[in-house]
Design a protein that fits this description.
Length: 197
């Protein structure tokens, strides 16, 4: 059983959004075209409450893209983005959502950010995706979406560590590439056994 995991193709990560990824919208047609090739399709959605602890605006004097220490480790402080119920949190209007078997919302705990589709950033609190995939008998994952160096990267590494055969389609991802983060992510994924296609 093979599943397509579509990571965070949301308005705030596309051009014009609060945390726009360059060309983030250009991957949508290719993702839509892939959906029929898989036994299961899962969409993930960043879903932050207002005032989330990962927002720079929640820390006096902190600049967006600076790094702070949280109880679970280093945390990039982001511009406010993907706030629950906002247009920015909505999926890109051209993304086909009807084929999705499941939508996983993450980042809704105000105290912990959540990049991975499998775990929050404490690397312990599960999202429920692993259990769902196990009950469906899924063994192979193909990951696409935004952004290559953060949510796709964390999801792919966690998936490989959980025993899935994971492929990342870099042609259907785009990166933030913050301070060398893309090269580091690609190296880390390869080291974890993720196939980069």
């Amino acid at each position: 059983m093979k599943a397509l995991i579509v990571i965070d193709v949301q308005n705030d990560f596309c051009p014009g959004g609060a945390l726009a990824v360059n060309e983030g919208d250009l991957i949508v047609p290719g993702i839509n075209a892939l959906m029929g090739d898989f036994d299961a399709v899962v969409l993930t959605q960043d879903w932050h409450p207002a005032g989330h602890s990962s927002f720079a605006s929640s820390h006096a004097g902190a600049a967006p893209m600076s790094v702070t220490q949280m109880p679970y480790g280093p945390q990039v402080l982001w511009p406010d983005h993907c706030i629950q119920g906002s247009n920015g949190a909505a999926f890109h209007k051209d993304l086909h959502t009807d084929p999705a078997d499941m939508i996983i919302r993450k980042g809704y705990n105000p105290a912990i950010d959540s990049y991975s589709a499998f775990f929050e950033n404490d690397h312990e609190t599960p999202t429920g995706l692993h259990g769902y995939l196990q009950t469906r008998g899924v063994t192979d994952l193909t990951m696409v979406g935004l952004a290559t160096d953060f949510c796709v990267n964390y999801s792919a590494v966690d998936g490989a560590n959980l025993g899935y055969a994971v492929t990342v389609r870099t042609d259907l991802c785009r990166a933030i590439d913050f301070d060398g983060s893309l090269d580091a992510a690609l190296a880390g994924m390869a080291q974890a056994g993720v196939k980069i296609a």
